[in-house]
């Protein structure tokens, strides 16, 4: 488990800064969960930023009789200060998150929700000021289309719109999110930081922000882009 102080440090940085750090640590996807956009409290706008450990939920088709079943509603076992990460079947056109779930999430101290799928009841989330990131939205509810099957299991997130290469693999690699990995979301998107890398990411992001500020000062003073990057970044 990542210490709360480390999560607070990471929360000071943007999704872009964190992704840059993960690329430097040789994660080919930079932790980026592509195709997920901010729907609430403001659609793709504002200063919303959430950061916290992932509490994962896997949804399956209602017709999948042999998939595991939960004994309790997943919102009744959600952990305080977590970010819900819900993965739905990629072709589902129904929502897996609605206004009542936001009400429950806020009552138990969940910081936000990231949905590899669709949400609905947008006005309710926005009125509540609750952070919602999703792949899309719908007018349809969860039932009778999908159901929750498992919680706190690893989830593999892949953008269904990404084409395949000659070997049949997605040209942008999928991201595996483990329970407790740190999710950070803002207007630019959502990134996942594996637990063992949080400390290194903070250090790299801190240095990167300092370098970027020096670049910004140089550019505002009239220095050319190529020269600035060569001097400050060595590129």
TrEMBL record:
It comes from the Eukaryota. Keywords: Magnesium, Metal-binding. Mg(2+) binds at residue 121. Transmembrane segments: none annotated. Substrate binds at residues 98-101, 120. One of its GO terms (molecular function) is 4-hydroxy-4-methyl-2-oxoglutarate aldolase activity. This is 4-hydroxy-4-methyl-2-oxoglutarate aldolase. It comes from Malassezia restricta (strain ATCC 96810 / NBRC 103918 / CBS 7877).
């Amino acid at each position: 488990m990542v210490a709360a102080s480390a999560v607070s440090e990471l929360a000071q940085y943007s999704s872009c800064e964190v992704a840059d750090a993960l690329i430097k640590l040789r994660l080919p996807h930079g932790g980026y969960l592509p195709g997920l956009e901010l729907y609430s409290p403001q659609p793709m706008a504002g200063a919303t930023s959430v950061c916290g450990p992932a509490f994962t939920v896997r949804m399956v088709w209602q017709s999948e009789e042999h998939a595991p079943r939960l004994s309790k509603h997943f919102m009744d076992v959600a952990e305080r200060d977590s970010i819900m990460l819900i993965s739905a079947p990629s072709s589902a056109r129904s929502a897996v998150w609605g206004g009542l779930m936001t009400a429950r999430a806020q009552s138990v101290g969940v910081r936000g929700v990231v949905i590899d799928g669709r949400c609905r009841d947008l006005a309710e989330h926005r009125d509540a000021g609750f952070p919602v990131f999703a792949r899309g939205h719908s007018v349809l509810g969860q039932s009778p289309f999908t159901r929750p099957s498992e919680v706190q299991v690893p989830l593999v997130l892949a953008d269904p719109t990404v084409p395949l290469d000659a070997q049949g693999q997605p040209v942008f690699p999928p991201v595996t999110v483990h329970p407790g990995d740190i999710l950070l979301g803002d207007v630019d998107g959502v990134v996942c930081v594996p637990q063992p890398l949080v400390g290194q990411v903070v250090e790299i992001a801190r240095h990167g922000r300092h370098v970027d500020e020096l670049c910004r000062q140089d550019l505002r003073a009239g220095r050319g882009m190529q020269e600035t990057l060569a001097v400050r970044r060595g590129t």
